[in-house]
Amino acid sequence: VQLQLARSIAAIDSLLGANQALISVLALVPSIACAYLFVRGIRGTIIALISESYQTTAMVHNELAAAFSELARLIFLADQTKPLDDATLGAVTILNARLIRRLQNEHARFRPAKLARLLRGLRDLVSQPPIGQTPRTASQFAHLLNHL
Q: Helical H runs in 78-133?
């Protein structure tokens, strides 16, 4: 009986030894899942601290999209054949400055290439044309805005 018991224990030990790699992998899966969930949960907190905003990224993107829509509305409602009047140009400039400041504050929520493209486009939108050229028409503003 003792001999059979010793053989059974030896057989169980050999099975466990053969499956040790599988058991190690199975034990690793929950820890990887916990680490992923932890990083996923803390990512929003880190972004909120960097951007000094407690809104979710989706909320920030929606607000910026609404601001871009307002900018487009101001430009597209103007007479497309003439330069923007002072009131419209002032509103576009102020909204543009707010968008730039918000993008700079929320830089952690954007990929660097996309952020750089948006900031460059917004700066180009209100930059002065070279000396000797006529002021931009609303259609030229619209063209620049479409390339953002």
A: 86-105, 112-126
Q: Which of 18-22, 80-84, 121-125 has the lowest mean pLDDT?
A: 18-22
Contact 98, 123 (CB under 8 A): no
Residue-level pLDDT at 34: 92
Cα–Cα separations (whole angstroms), residue 96 to 26, 55, 62, 104: 54, 21, 16, 12
CA–CA dist 19, 140 (Å, integer): 70
The helix (run of H) or strand (run of E) holding residue 75 is: helix 57-77
> Which residues neighbour 147 within 8 Å (Cβ) at sequence distance 6 or greater?
121
Report whether 76 contacts 133 (CB < 8 A). Answer: no
* Cβ(92)–Cβ(127) below 8 Å: no
